[in-house]
């Protein structure tokens, strides 16, 4: 409800409606001379005209902001890589305009999400295989050997900014990576000062968590925390953050455990959304959240075992909940290190198991001897091209929460001032118009009174 009344269109329309009710219905009760139908009509037209003029001005400003963003994204690149990216953006924006049906503020009106994570985390794979509808083919956004800098994916619901893994880790060429990351944040702040982004998606591969030692996990968590702190400081916003545990198909038994799901089942959400809280997330809450997820996963085990005839697959299904349990301490350590502390870097909304593509050798921490028992080497998972647990996570969990971002205080104050000024202008013009109408009505009444008196006298004489 609070978000509804924070919307300028809702508030201004209600005030305009209230002004019409008061001036066109209430005022004639106090001043009977205003009861004439043409006077009431004039009041309604005056109020709507003022509201329409102010609304048109806001729309024009929004369109100007959209043009500024488009110009920044499609600007000429200084080097060959920049020129290639500029060409991609030009094609993307052209296609989006053609699909916007003439709506010029299409770009600014969509929420923006930035996805970060170490190199090889599967960020691009998750987005491209999410099942979202992209008006522009996603093939032209795929970097060679991974995203080299930034890729912009324009879906029908949101703008997704896929950042290079080196921007998160900054361990290849720290100076160059840091400068590129800083320039990207500056671009967002310059072109979307009111709400630079609506959320951050942190992608971390399950293989990194299950294979890595404490130092590796801590290193990833520290890098993520630094980038999130830079986002908060550079953009001046409090952001919701969603942690994607990518490559979940590398957990031994994942594919076999979920092989019975149809398309809708694979689009579901497999994770835990935390209660909204501005402060840091307590360690015990993370543990409880993970345990709840693990119980939900285990609840399907009996049904899957009864439906599976293959002995090796049954063994994998039997061991899958234990594999999930082995992830618990590692994930909690990562989340605690990245999001705990006295200075929260954002609002952790949840963590989710996802898989964009099935390939590679599954990691079996609990049943590493299974292959020996069956006298068979562990086989790689074939690239079946199925996406698990991505579609509704983005479309039903993240995108509807676009309003959770806490706007830049300065921009919020400026917007509040503009809203008050606009509503004040509507009120002032409406009052002036009402006063002029009242004075005009009184003049007409005064002029008509002698005529009526003369008519009555003439009638009496006859």
Automatic annotation (TrEMBL):
The chain crosses the membrane at residues 7-31, 37-57, 419-439. InterPro entries: P-loop_NTPase (IPR027417), T6SS_TssM-like (IPR053156), TssM1-like (IPR017731), TssM1_N (IPR025743). Pfam families: IcmF-related_N (PF14331). This is Type VI secretion system membrane subunit TssM. It comes from Sphingomonas crocodyli. SUPFAM superfamilies: P-loop containing nucleoside triphosphate hydrolases (SSF52540). Keywords: Membrane, Transmembrane, Transmembrane helix. Residues 175-424 form the Type VI secretion system component TssM1 N-terminal domain. The keyword Transmembrane helix applies. It comes from the Bacteria. Signal peptide: none annotated.
